[in-house]
Structure formats: structure tokens, C-alpha cells
Design goal:
Blueprint (H helix, E strand, L loop, with lengths): L2 H11 L4 E5 L15 H6 L7 E4 L4 E5 L4 H7 L6 E4 L8 H7 L5 E3 L6 H8 L7 E2 L20 E2 L2 H4 L3 H15 L3 E4 L2 H8 L1 E2 L11 E6 L3 E5 L8 H13 L2 E5 L3 H9 L9 E3 L6 H10 L5 E3 L4 H6 L3 H28 L6 H13 L4 E4 L4 E4 L23 E6 L1 E3 L2 E2 L2 E6 L5 H18 L3 E2 L4 H14 L9 E3 L8 E6 L13 E4 L2 E4 L3 E4 L2 E11 L2 E8 L17 H18 L5 H10 L6
Parallel strand pairs: 1-5, 3-4, 5-6, 8-13, 11-12, 13-14
Antiparallel strand pairs: 1-2, 2-3, 7-9, 8-10, 10-11, 15-18, 16-17, 17-20, 18-19, 21-28, 22-23, 24-27, 25-26, 27-28
């Protein structure tokens, strides 16, 4: 019997109208440890953005247009219905629950955020049924919680000690009259305490909660069962304790919180939580013990502070992109010489991953490398299979989207390259996407502008050609943290978070033609303070990525003279920056590839 059928039977037997599941973990993470890949286990859908509603008679999955092709492939043959978010007239989960008249709604309260739970609560007059770790009863071989080595981030690249960062946070708390703040978002804990781990693939993070008061800090983290790195973990914990951070086991968070919240003085204190990253199971502890006026729901103050890199972090990120650029140019040289020789998408991916692994200070990839030839690249989040991947021919376009995690930074880059003769449509799309990329990189905006404005500047040339892409133009990138970081949010819907100097984000427009080709050009940009004059202050953007754009597929006459000048200068900068660090044959090849073109 399938797991979904078992769940439907359970719901019917217990008079539950609907179970709502989110592709998440107890920290509302985007990238998940295997234990929390529940929707993939239930449905087979491997996309990052997924939500499900299961009723006694139906199963419905929500995702967004990035995964339109993939979700159809992954769910082929199942009876799971698919609904899209972020499209006109989209049906939300609350709308759906109202339409089926769901009166009794259950959630896994460990993997549902406070914000999501309160949205569901508005649908029904009944209290939500909380079933923490609900899938344990059906998922007999469910993976255990991850437990890996905890180590200190190199403060030379962080620019601030953990003591300085804790002092800054306490200054915010004191100013606002907050006695305690609970932090559950993993990258915020890693940033604040300058610690890292590898408990989640591609993310140098540890599963943890952190409670900070004006005088103390309490870290709830996996303390036992570490197969490797006992000495490193112990020394890291000792350094944390020296900084006034008490260490508890991860599973103690509810018992310690319950004791604190039920203490005599708790009802006179203010406890701050972020409803978007705190799970509902923990929130219930606050509700059971405190009056509502003691619970302050607000965005975490760490979010924006972390996104605005300091000068030391910026220099470290530049070092990361220099080292990463060397690996990329060696790889693109290899591709140029080996396509058409029986090399597959998977073979190419392995070669690039090996080049990155040679870099001193390398920890891991920053996400699974996307190595996609021809029609494979029409899936923005293509997962390159080990078996059955396409061979790279001496024609058409090849797309590679990849990045690395290093002691000194995080990278994310996409290059689409011609492997030989391309069709006119491929070349036109290639040039239009490059034009869109350059328009973003060259943009100047009034200070306080939002990502939606930058998104529109970039897309304008695609819209004029009656083309578009259905993902955001860009996402924030952490400093030896998550490759996806918010803010900034550069996308075609308004998000109330301005672009600020020090933020690093991706510039990655694309065009995807099902069954034919996909194109994406991606660099990371640094938001910088520009001129201030009688008209106000302005921001502009510095490109951090160092890897040339292939000019062999450009259609003449589409790039303006200013855009062509930008491209020529960028390619020249790449060559001059990397040439002395590349093998001679690669440097010679790169010299030829970066010769200026006419507009």
C-alpha cells in the first residue's frame, strides 16, 4: 500500500479533512537534510519548492513555473494533482481548503512555520491538529537527524568576531525592550556565532536553535554521536562557551524553553520570534505559557545585517570568485576540446566538480551542478543523471550552472556556450539573454530601490522580443553560507526589501524552449554606493564573477554599442585577472576567446 493511501486512510479514520505538508524542516530551510525530504518521498517530485494537501480522497501538490516540465515528468503515472503558484489566478492552499470545505486541518507542526500555520488557522474555526514528525508512522526507513562536525569559520574572512556580533544583536534587543530572541534560521545562527558544519548538503550549516538574552546565549545543537571530528567539535564548543554561549543538545530545546517560559518572571518579559522561520511546534510553547503581549512577532534583525557584507567579507568573496574563475576557465577549455568525443553531460559535471575540489579552502559544491546539453537545458533545475545523460555534440548549446563553498566565500555561476553550429533561434536567444544580463549589470538606481525595478530593467529587451522567463532574475548569496540568501530579492513581484550596499546577488536571466534548448547567463553582482548629488543618492553594481562570456553565438546588431563595450571590457578584465594563474595553453585559448567584438 502506498504511503499516500495509508495517510488517506488515517485521515478518514480520525475524521481529519485535510493534511497540509510543506517541503521544509524545523528551521524552514530551503535545502533539506534527507530526513525532511518528505514530499519527494511521498510523491517523487524532487523540486525545492513544494507543498502538498492530502485529503481522504485527493492529493494536490503546489510548485511554481520553474518546475512545470520537471513536475510533469516526476509525477507521471500518479494521481497527484498539480497546481501552480506565482501565476495569474493561482489557487492558494487556503483557497483550496475553503473550496473543499475542510473544517478539520492537520499539520506537521515541526515543519510548518508560524506564518503558514496562522494562515491555515484563518481557514477553519477549529484549532489546527498538530502532528509533529507525523510521517514517522509511515516512513519506516526514514533517515535519522544529521550529525556532523562543527567547526569555526575563519574570522580572517568574517570581519567580526562572534562576541562583536552578539554585542550588536543585544544592542538591538536593548533598544527595542526585548528580553529574549529565538533564532531558528540556520544561516543566521552560523553567521552570528561564526560556526559552520555540513549537516545539510551544499550548505555549511548545522541543525540548531539559538536563544539569546541580554546576558546569555543558549545553543541547541547535535552534541552526540559524531563519527568524525570529535576534537574539532569539542574545541569549537569550548570557544563558544568562552564567549558565553551555553551548549545544549538539539532535542532539549523544547524542555529548556518550557522551563524558562513557565518561570515566575517570564510573564513580564518580551520574547521575539520570526514567524517565517520559527516552527509552529515551538510557537505553541510560547502560546501555552505566555500572554500574547509577551510574544513579539517580527522579522529577524539578523537577516538584512547578514546580507550587507562588510569590507572584509567582500574582499573574501572576491578571492572566492578569482579561485572559482580559474576552475571555470580550465573547465570551459576542456569542454571546447572534448565535446563531440563521447563526453556526456554527467562526464562534464564530474570534471568541473574535480577542478573545484582542487582549490585550497574548498569545502563542497554550493548546490548540485546542472550540466545540460540541448533540450536538457530547457529545465531550469535539470538534475543531471549518472546514467543516460546526453552526449555533448559539436553543435548546439551547452549550459552549466554551478558553484562552490570555500573558507572565503560562496560562488554561483552559469555559462551557456556554443559547441559548434547553432540555429538562428538559439543564437538570437543567446544574444537576447546576454543583453538582459548586461542591462542588469550596467544599471544605476536611486538608493532605496527594490529588486522588482532591477528585474524590469533586465527583462525589457526580452519583453520587446515577446519572450520571457519564469524565475526571478536573481537571489542573494551568502558569505560561506547558503547560495540562496534573502534579501535581496530580484524578481518580477514586489517584495518590500530594498537593495542595499554590500548585498551580493545573482544576475541570471534566461530563455527556455521545451524540447530544444535553454540559455542562462549568470554572474554575481555586488551592490555599491554610487554618486550622491542634488537628485539624491544612487546605487550601482560591481561584477564579482570572473569567467568570460563566449562571443561566438552572438547575433550582430542586437547589443548596443554601450553593451558591447561592457562585454569587451568584462572579457578583457577576466583575461588580465586570470592569465598568470592559468596553465599556458588555457591562457592562450582564453586570450583568443576574449578578443573584442564589434556591435
Amino acid at each position: 500500500m502506498s504511503a499516500i493511501k495509508q495517510i488517506r486512510d488515517y485521515l478518514a479514520e480520525n475524521c481529519i479533512d485535510a493534511l497540509v505538508l510543506y517541503n521544509s524542516d524545523p528551521h524552514e530551510s530551503e535545502y533539506l537534510a534527507p530526513r525532511y525530504c518528505s514530499i519527494e518521498w511521498l510523491s517523487g517530485f524532487k523540486g525545492e519548492n513544494a507543498k502538498m494537501v492530502i485529503t481522504p480522497s485527493r492529493s494536490v501538490l503546489w510548485t511554481d513555473p520553474r518546475y512545470e516540465i520537471q513536475v510533469a515528468q516526476d509525477l507521471a503515472g500518479s494521481d497527484i494533482e498539480v497546481l501552480m503558484e506565482r501565476v495569474p489566478n493561482a489557487i492558494s492552499i487556503p483557497d483550496f481548503l475553503k473550496s473543499v470545505e475542510a473544517k478539520t486541518i492537520a499539520i506537521d507542526s515541526l515543519t510548518t512555520s508560524v506564518a503558514a500555520a496562522l494562515e491555515l488557522q484563518d481557514v477553519t474555526e477549529n484549532a489546527l491538529i498538530c502532528l509533529p514528525d507525523f510521517l514517522d508512522r509511515f516512513w519506516k526507513e526514514r533517515p535519522a537527524m544529521p550529525c556532523k562536525d562543527i567547526f569555526e569559520a575563519d574570522v580572517r574572512y568574517m570581519g567580526e568576531s562572534r562576541e562583536e556580533r552578539l554585542s550588536w544583536l543585544r544592542g538591538i534587543m536593548e533598544k527595542e525592550g526585548t528580553d529574549y530572541i529565538l533564532i531558528s534560521e540556520l544561516s543566521e545562527i552560523a553567521w552570528l556565532l561564526n560556526i559552520r558544519s555540513s549537516e545539510i548538503d551544499y550548505n555549511p550549516l548545522a541543525m540548531a536553535h539559538l536563544l539569546v538574552s541580554l546576558d546569555d546565549a543558549y545553543l541547541y545543537i547535535r552534541k552526540i554521536g559524531k563519527a568524525h571530528g570529535e576534537i574539532t567539535t569539542a574545541s569549537t564548543f569550548a570557544a563558544l562557551e568562552q564567549a558565553g554561549v551555553s551548549i545544549y543538545d538539539y532535542d532539549e530545546v523544547t524542555s529548556v524553553l518550557s522551563t524558562l517560559l513557565s518561570s515566575p518572571g517570564a510573564k513580564t518579559m518580551k520574547f521575539r520570534i520570526d514567524p517565517s522561520t520559527t516552527n509552529y511546534e515551538i510557537y505553541r510553547l510560547f502560546l501555552e505559557s505566555l500572554p500574547e503581549n509577551c510574544i513579539v512577532q517580527a522579522d529577524s534583525p539578523i537577516t538584512v545585517r547578514k546580507a550587507c557584507k562588510n569590507s572584509v567579507e567582500i574582499e573574501a568573496m572576491k578571492k572566492a570568485h578569482f579561485e572559482d574563475g580559474i576552475a571555470m576557465e580550465k573547465f570551459l577549455y576542456w569542454i571546447d576540446n572534448n565535446a563531440g568525443e563521447g563526453v556526456t553531460e554527467y562526464d562534464a559535471m564530474q570534471v568541473l566538480d574535480e577542478y573545484r575540489a582542487e582549490i585550497e579552502g574548498y569545502h563542497s559544491l554550493s548546490f548540485g551542478t546542472i550540466s545540460a546539453y540541448g533540450p536538457s537545458a530547457a529545465l531550469p533545475h535539470y538534475m543531471t543523471p549518472a546514467e543516460g545523460s546526453l552526449e555533448l555534440q559539436r553543435c548546439g548549446l551547452y549550459l552549466v550552472d554551478s558553484g562552490g563553498q570555500y573558507d572565503f566565500g560562496t560562488t554561483d555561476i552559469t555559462r551557456t556556450v556554443p559547441l559548434g553550429e547553432c540555429s538562428q533561434e538559439e543564437m538570437l536567444d543567446y544574444t537576447l539573454v546576454l543583453k538582459a544580463h548586461i542591462r542588469c549589470a550596467m544599471a544605476v538606481l536611486p538608493a532605496g530601490s527594490f529588486g522588482i525595478q532591477l528585474d524590469a530593467i533586465s527583462r525589457d529587451c526580452l519583453w520587446r522580443a515577446r519572450k520571457n522567463f519564469f524565475h526571478g532574475l536573481g537571489h542573494g548569496v551568502g558569505m560561506f553560507l547558503g547560495v540562496h540568501e534573502c534579501p535581496p530579492n530580484v524578481r518580477s513581484r514586489f517584495i518590500d526589501s530594498p537593495m542595499l550596499p554590500g548585498m551580493i546577488f545573482s544576475d541570471e536571466p534566461g530563455i527556455y524552449v521545451q524540447g530544444s534548448h535553454g540559455i542562462r547567463h549568470e554572474n554575481l553582482l555586488l551592490c555599491t554606493q554610487d554618486e550622491t548629488n542634488d537628485y539624491g543618492s544612487f546605487i550601482s553594481f560591481e561584477t564579482l564573477t570572473l569567467c568570460h562570456f563566449d562571443t561566438r553565438a552572438i547575433v550582430p546588431g542586437i547589443l548596443s554599442s554601450e553593451e558591447t563595450e561592457w562585454l569587451n571590457q568584462y572579457n578583457a578584465t577576466v583575461y588580465n585577472s586570470l592569465k598568470d594563474s592559468l596553465p599556458q595553453e588555457v591562457a592562450d585559448w582564453l586570450y583568443d576567446m576574449t578578443q573584442p567584438i564589434e556591435c
